[in-house]
Design a protein that fits this description.
By secondary structure, the protein is α+β, with helices and mostly antiparallel strands. The protein has helices at 4-7, 25-37, 41-52, 67-81, 85-100, 120-129, 132-136, 139-150, 232-235; strands spanning 57-58, 63-64, 109-112, 115-119, 154-162, 168-175, 183-188, 197-206, 211-216, 228-231. It binds zinc ion.
Amino acid sequence: MSLDAVDAVNWSAIPNPTAHPSDDPERVADALRRLAVSTTANETGDAASLLAGGGFVCSHAGMVFPAAYAATPVLLDLVEHGRRSRIKDAALGLLFDALCSLPPVGHNRVDTPHGADVPLCCAIARCIRGRHAVLRAHGRFGRQLLAEAALHWQLTIEETELQPDGTLTAIAVLEGTPLPPPTEAELHVPPFVQRAATVCVEALTADSSGAACIQLRQTPIRITPGSTLYAAECGRREH
Ligand SMILES: [Zn+2]
């Protein structure tokens, strides 16, 4: 695997919530490089321990850091192209830890190409879903990671129509598996400068391709095509 994906990230621009040197995002970059080029079981284990010991996740505290979002595509590359199966397995385990941990207070959101202030867990989950073919081919643990990612569902609105009773019907694309409605969601509207509003998805039907039709109660802000909905619960995940 090429290390260009690690070098392409501006690690020093990522916040370090604890300001502790062991949580420095540059240290995450270094550990990812070490993991990618590791040849012995000890080297792989040491690199994975560095990532699990702070900066990426702190497995001891069950905490995930903002740098985990930038590290996720690199770890997914390692699952796909890692030189050894133990590197692939270590990358998979770290991704699972990242999804199952909670971010520190005030650091539970990241900006992504698809929207600003996205819950960290949902941003990581979306990257993971994007590599579903690779993960499905990676046996039971790959499928478990996909199942965990599916809990961080997302709806992208394509069209809306206001109904006579004041509710809004929308055609949307669903990724993941929401809880049965009514479901509380946070609404992000392009150009994603406003704070997300909390809304209630009152009805949802979707087919296996993700084509969905949803019903929302009157919303506080105007929903435009490209607006996205995430589980409200994800936006409240904090340590
Ligand atoms: Zn989430």
